[in-house]
Specification:
Order of helices and strands of chain A: HEHEHEHEHHHHEHHHHHEHEHHEH
Largest interface: A-B, 79 and 74 residues
Number of strands of chain A: 8
Radius of gyration of chain A: 27 Å
Radius of gyration of chain B: 24 Å
Oligomer: heterodimer
CATH architecture of chain B: 3-Layer(aba) Sandwich
Shape of chain A: elongated
Distance between the termini of chain B: 14 Å
Strand content of chain B: 5-15%
Helix content of chain A: 55-70%
CATH class of chain B: Alpha Beta
Chain lengths: 380, 286
Amino acid sequence: MNLEQLLAAKEIVVTCGSGGVGKTTTAAALGTLAATQLGGKVLVLTVDPARRLADAMGIGPLGNVAVQVRPEVFAAAGVEPRGELWAAMLDTKQSWDDLVERHAPDAATRDAILANPLYRNITSKFVQSHDYIAMERLYELHASGDYDLIVVDTPPSRNAIDFLEAPARMAEFFSSRFLRLLIAPARNRFVNVASRPFYTVADRILGSQFLEDIAEFFILFQSMYAGFVERAHAVERVLADRRTTFVVVTTLEASPVREAEFFVEALAAKHLHLGAVVLNKVLPGYLLDEDAATVAGRLRADGPAVAAAAGVQLGPAAEVGRVLAEVGDSFLNFQVVAKREAEQRAELSVGTEVVATVPYQDHDIVDLAGLVQLADHLRR
Amino acid sequence: MLAAGQGRRTLVCETDGSGHLGQLLEAGPLAFKGREVQPLLSAMTMNTEESLKEYLALQLKVPLLSRIGPLARAFDFIANAAPGVKEILTVGKLGWEVKEDHYDLVVVDAPATGHVVGQLRAPQAINELLSVGLVREQTGWLVDLLGDAAVTGVVVVTAPEEMPVVEALDLVGQLAADDVGAGTAAVVVNRVLPELFGRGEEVVFDRLCEPGNRGALQAAAGDAAGTVLDAARLAVTLRRNRAEHLSALRAGLDPSLPMLYVPELFARTHGVRALRQVADHLAEEL
């Protein structure tokens, strides 16, 4: 099994990992790989508003509506795709509004919810709402049947598994006992003795006006409750479906590796399918070469002597010696980092047979050719 | 570490609960209650539920623990239902440590870029959402504390790579917006690669890499000399690439804003030794 076979066997690929490891770029490269090598209609759904990636794919600012990468962009990159590549960005607020639109029983309720300040606050600032809506959009796109493969990257969360739990938490949230407790006084002024201390304290902390605002909001939302909870469960089922797989992306630095391990364990605990681990931005293996280290040591210690022995005459001998010493020093410095990476690699227990290593790119990805190149590394 | 070394009572706080701070300080797991891990340097990890309990006990003088019981159970719900509550409990606790003068300096490792503005904005947002209540009464001083540039400053940390630079510029822009309060005090660029060669030396290096000279060098020092040259070429390319991002960052920032550089550490550990090196570099830059 390799990544290409994995992409051929699945309908949803979710890339995950900690921030800064190249999740979004990897997702885009996986999409490119599928579109160029496998064919079909492929969508890359990103939560990352980096303009450079959209530019690289030759499409304007991304929004909720998917845009196709034009054939001439592929031609410019020197590839003839077997399929279509589409891209879309997750617009959290728009997606929530769409959701309300779909579930609201009538226009009045819909408008009341959309205008509610608490709703606006929750959908724009509530971190977990991003996690949930990302999974919800994924579900919707998959259910539309418009795509053969959807590759999605995940929002930067405080905790990498937050988004996995988002659907369950959202369902729990809307069916919560405390929700009913909070709504109770607004719906029915009778408050029983047992729950009175709760209101007293909540009142003192937050103020009764705010509690009433919350209650109003949730009463409005309650009309959509059944649809919401059902939907959240459907999203959960899609994530657990055997057509869905997760690709964990990490660099070989200590803390992303720990995060990746944590993630691999979390996937196993939830019986979700770990398809592959991508080791990104890995330094070249030749940095570990011990013969080279010996030479580098000599250069660093005695550059001028080596220069003299080699008989290279490129200017003042002292200058050549200095350059050679720097060259040796640089090698030894990078070897320290490469060794650190090798240690992390050895310690990382990945629990999957598919491990792709992507070397450190010495330039940024600015066009589709860059993504194609990255895709080539992922294929190996 | 630097501040504590200068004799200031310092608290450093982790807000994401990852345990990374404790590992870096080689101090074992941290708790909500600050613990001195080095002379004058205390460390803690944020826990909003603990923060709420402390707040209730200190500010509201809630008398009975039994009343906190159901409240604690309801806590997750309230914190989720009312955006800003978790944020205010984080900012509030740290602001309180400053207000009470428990420390001379409180250093907070804020959550990811997208979330930190929400945290800093929380007191103001709460003020707008809540018209009455004890929380409302407590947010006024926090707004003042965060808005006072002599007291609070945000240090934006970035790396000379594409996304980090874009995000850093975006964050500095957001912090400049009026409703956030706290402004940017400095930008720290981490993992800056050293300039390998001085003026004229790069020409020498380029010529050394030419096949004839490369061969001569391999004959004199061993075949592996070629590998060493390749590695230096990689280092030069990486440095040049990062320099471009560094220029983009500098161009996007107000020239009066201090920019501090921390070099890439070619060190074996991630522990206290590495921290000490970073602290020393920052000291030099300051």
